Amino acid sequence: MSTNNTVRLNKILRELNISLDEAINLFSKLGFDIEARPTAKIDINLYELLKIELKYITPVKPVFFNEKLITTPTVVSQLRKEYGVPENIFKYYSLNEYNFESIRDKYLYFPRPSDFNDPFDCNSELISFINENSKLKTNHKKIKKNFVDKFENTGVCCFSRSKESILMWSHYATKHQGFCIEFRANKNIDGINPLDVNYVSEFRKAEYFEKAERAIFHLLFTKSDEWKYEQELRIALTNIQSEEDRKVPYKDNDLLSIYFGVNCQEETINRVLKLIRNNYSSQINFYVGETLKNNYGINWKKIKWILKKITTLKIYSNIVDLNPFQAEILKSIKKS
Fold first, then answer.
1. Number of structural domains, the chain?
2. 291 phi and psi, to 5 degrees?
């Protein structure tokens, strides 16, 4: 019996009206060595490729076989070679109170996948719990339920390769009113080292009983290609025992820059800058976004800030001229 991902070789022989030797030779010609046994399982993609080779069907998507529909560490490694290893990554922040707390206390939060806005992301249906080697070949509902229950103790922290996505600013940064933090990545073994998400065009299940670790990896790092614009990277934690375990600290110098959205209010900017001044010792850059006049994009304007003697913060651009009142504040700060 075939599964969603495989088909028996004897079925291929019947449907294509070829002998076992012919099939072995054809697969070898395509660069694949298969077991010379009629009951051997053949990947469905190989079968489709063989039909194209025999002109049994007309290829609709000639490059579909190159797409890695099951996400494995090898696939993610190939993505990293294709995209390059990022030295800097970005995380979008809304105006929720816990995001300001995370800046103050210097931690990354690892939410439950069940809290994600994409219902297909980390969906347990990406794993097949049917054991083909079992005599009963039944759906192991109890094992699946136990897996789903334990998966609630998983946390996933998401990042992006880009700070320029207008959609992500809208979805994850309170309609451009929030901010985006640039983090240092892949510099230390105990630093922030996320892996790329594999975007796929088809919903494919990984076999739990074939290799559980691979199936879980597939579950964590596979998303529909409709989300490809996010250029997402992520870190996953398992066996989380408490809410505090979801708060993973980072170092001062892991935070490089903060970008404020084009609709970000001065109150928000002031609050973030104060948190940085009071809790960080490393050099951090700040930018405010403004919409381009003749294009769909954002221009980032570097800013610097001045702390009054009380607690009020004021933001000035690098180029702006200070009025007399502001100049007096500067003088008093320099003297104190």
1. 2
2. -70, 140
